[in-house]
User: Fold this.
Amino acid sequence: MLNRVYDYLDLALPIVHGSNVEDGTLVALFKMVNLPYVGSNVLASAIGMDKQLMKDVLKSYDLPVLDYVSFNRADYDQGVDYIVKESLKKFGYPLVVKPANLGSSIGISKVNNQKDFIKAIDYAYEYTNKIIIERCVLKLREINCAVLGNYEGAIASECEEPILTDDILTFEDKYVNEGSKSKGMVSLKRELPANITKEQKKTIQDLALRTFNVLGCSGVARVDFLLEGKKVYINEINTIPGSLSYYLWKESGIEYAELLDRLINIALKEDKINKKIISSFDTNILENLSEKGLKSSGKK
Assistant:
């Protein structure tokens, strides 16, 4: 069936969110059937989706991320009290609890006391088998910056500042705009360009490019930052950003049609290069295989 579908396709442009698609699963399918696709490869997509792995990789390159503690399903099975106790050894309230491998602000909670903390842990585990817990950044400002390109070269977009209705950006902030039909991230209330200094803008754009390159991303991605006074932290990367972040590129002088052209050209060029790489070779290693294993050559 896949071969029949593939016969009608020249290239895939995935515009999807969440587990089992944005985490590299979908592009793995494209790769298996040799279908060119726009965007990051399996590894970059998987790391970008897993907030714990992403933080660990970025931290190893001395990129600024918030400290965290993580817990898996086995930890949760020990009891919520265990997670509360271990978390409070490192952080005090307020805290942010979030699934480690979801997006769109699903399953995220800010907590100020133990009762809410327990509820937030239970809530997060409804969506995942692994959670991370961070200290809550006070007087938070969120700044987003998109990146376009690949390992050969990339550019950073203009920066935006989403308008928060709460202490953290919610699913409703991102996708529900005053009861109207959702238009995705484009419907989010924002300041564009963000009201930040030239120095802050340059710092954020440089960090966005470094994040994109360190994770080995391709196509378009959006890097989200947390501002705490003069400090800047990388919060997460979206390897398939909502609306392809076209509103950021429009502000940067790249219209939607040109954005699509660039993405397609990057994908086709990478596919051409990848098809030249030898990934298998003929061998007769099993030629002498018997029920007892490889037959002896008779040589000693």
Q: What stands out?
A: Residues 2-64+139-274 form a domain with the D-amino Acid Aminotransferase; Chain A, domain 1 fold (CATH 3.30.470.20). Residues 171-175 have pLDDT under 50 and may be disordered.
